Amino acid sequence: MKLAIKLAFRNLIGAGLRTWLNVIVLSFSFVIIIWLKGVMSGWDQQAKTDMTNWEIGGGQYWHEAYDPYDPFTFSDSHSPIPGEFRSEIEKGDMEPYLISQGTIYPQGRIQSIMIKGINPKQSIFMLPAHKLDTVMTDAIPSIIGSLMARNLKAGIGDRVTIQWRDNQGTFDAAEILITEIFTVSVPAVDQGQVYIPLDRLQSMMGLEGEATILTYRNSETPVVDVPGWTHRPKEVLTAQVDEMIKMKTTGQSVLYAVLLLLAMLAIFDTQVLSIFRRQKEIGTYVALGYTRRQVVGLFTVEGAMYAVFAALLSAAYGLPFLAWQAKAGWTMPVDASDFGMAIAQTLYPVYSAGLVVSTVLLVLLVTTVVSYWPSRRIAKMNPTEALRGKIQ
Amino acid sequence: MENSQIIRIESLVKRFPMGKGEFTALNGIKLSLGQGEFAGLIGPSGSGKTTLLNIIGSLDVPTEGSVTVLGRSIGALSAGEAARLRKESLGFIFQSYNLFAVHTVYENVEFPLLLLKYSATERKKMVTDALDWVGLNDKIKSKPPQLSGGECQRVAIARAMVKKPSLVLADEPTANLDAANSHNILKTMVSLNRELKTSFLFATHDDKVISYLRRKIFLLDGRVDNDVIISN
Question: What is the CATH number of the domain that holds B29?
Fold first, then answer.
């Protein structure tokens, strides 16, 4: 083995440009695979972090009638905020939400919305709720997401009419004034959502002191069993994202396989060509005392050594590049909100030691297999014909 | 020295499949070669010279008969045993040199010693000695494409001789060389045969080579047609 490594090294260094071309192609694959995996991991991590920061906090208590997938439950999913949570709410470690269905009328059009009442002084979510902290009598201050603003064709300072039904079933309408438009990568926080001050919504609905959802800041907060409210820990609330990540992982695997395949094609091609082009050399190895199996081993080590060289080259230029990307992020050239999915405009790749080691080992393993595959042919070669280069 | 036999061949037959039938390349060869001989298998193309040389070199096996080289029966050797025989005791010189193009002259000559696991110090001395024999110590860093045909064949001789094998098999070693280079190469081999007592067996139809042989084994249609020993 030691001799095979020594000879393979000599052969590859001696082959010059042919070796370096393969090594460069393979090193690109290394860096691109690690970068792409890092971007995907970053995206996954960002999705969960954004969801925590913008929507679910450290966990929630839902009114027992509330079902986010059934709008018919919204009219009944509210009740007075339990006294058990009063101190936490006063400390700002828990925030109540009131949710109501409604309709908005942008420029004569009609569109269903969810009206969410939140505390303008809250600090659990990244929502710019302080922009709701405005005293006005002729309109309700409101904030909306950028996707929603685009759908409404509305901007900051615009006034739009909304309609809702109070707890008595009476329809009422008022104007909202858009005081802020925020950008978020969590569609559930943006699409079809209009945020107004909690006390205004409570008063509009005739539900003073009531809420639909209570969100706490710290996921370590002890769970309190309150009748009429269901505890939803963070893990349950992020289960959907976890599921999405799992599904994405399958799709990503196909992408890695394609990248890997392209790199391996170069190695496979080189090996196949080598075996035909280097027949005399193979015959000479045998004549000088190698068994055909040892020659197969030598060619396999040569192939695998491409991956080793590529890993070293990748480390030279890839590590600084990957580190820079992790810091600066990758900003997508087109508007991410056009994608219709939860994705930030700038993605920050996240790499783990496991990712780098597993990628290097995978490429090394696949390269070795791809090198061994065509090299098996050598074992069937007649050395006397190989010596004369007569094998077709 | 020439009394101890290093090659003994009895009733050797070698057939190759050809189309639906078979082609008989060697047909009942009986031959022996003593240590230190400088002999040649002479004959026209298709007479079986290279086939016989390949079998003696354990690169091929007999169809019938027995071939014993340095006490080992070629037909009975496993792939590993045959490789060991070639590695330890045989040297090969080819018509087209068969040097490793990407290795330097030094690395080409060093190769057989790597297989035999000599230490770096031993290898350095032995390679230097071998390159001294062929007069190429000033070319150790050159690669074969940078050398002339004659120089390449000298490197091939150094590679064959570096481990001081018992037997060197040379297949048409001068076929790609001009007359001056051929004579130089042959003189080198004659002197190595004398100094190191290494046996040489050539396959050739080149008159220049034939003129240096001390034993001429004429092959015709796969048989030994004549076997002439030249007295000094």
Answer: 3.40.50.300
Distance CA B220, CA B211 (A): 19
Mean pLDDT across the stretch B133-154?
A: 90
CB contact (8 A) between residue B59 and residue A287: yes
Contact B54 A384 (CB under 8 A): yes
- pLDDT over 50 at A175, yes or no: yes
More confident residue, A304 or B176: A304
Has residue B82 been placed in a domain?
A: yes
Residue A75 in tokens = 């009219």
Residues of A in contact with B92 (CB under 8 A): 284, 287-288
Above 90 in pLDDT, residue B169? yes
Residue B133 inside a domain? The answer is: no
Phi, psi dihedrals of residue B143, rounded to the nearest 5°: -110, 150
Residue B54, in any domain of the structure: yes
| Min Cα separation A362/chain B (Å) | 30
Measured between beta carbons, the chain B residues lying within 8 angstroms of A6 are 114
Query: Is residue B125 in some structural domain?
Result: no
Range of the domain at B46: 5-95+165-229
H/E/C letters for each residue in B132-189?
A: HHCCCHHHCCCCHHHCCHHHHHHHHHHHHHCCCCCEEEEECCCCCCCHHHHHHHHHHH
Q: Which residues of A100-112 are buried (b: 16+ CB within 10 A; e: fewer)?
A: bebbbebeeeeee
- What pLDDT score was predicted for residue A339? 54
Averaged pLDDT for residues A129-149: 89
A387 Cβ neighbours under 8 A, 6+ residues apart: A279, A280, A283, A284, A286, A287, B59, B94, B98
Question: Which residue is closest to B94 within chain A, CA to CA?
Answer: A387
What is the complex's ipTM, to 2 decimals?
0.90
| Optimal mutation site among A12, A18, A387, interface B, most CBs of chain B within 10 A | A387
Percent of chain A with pLDDT over 70: 96
Domain count along chain B: 1
Contacting residues of A for B115, CB less than 8 Å apart: 3, 288-290
C-alpha span between B86 and B156 (Å, rounded): 15
Distance CA(A3)–CA(A212), nearest Å, equals: 73
Q: What is the DSSP letter of A76?
A: G
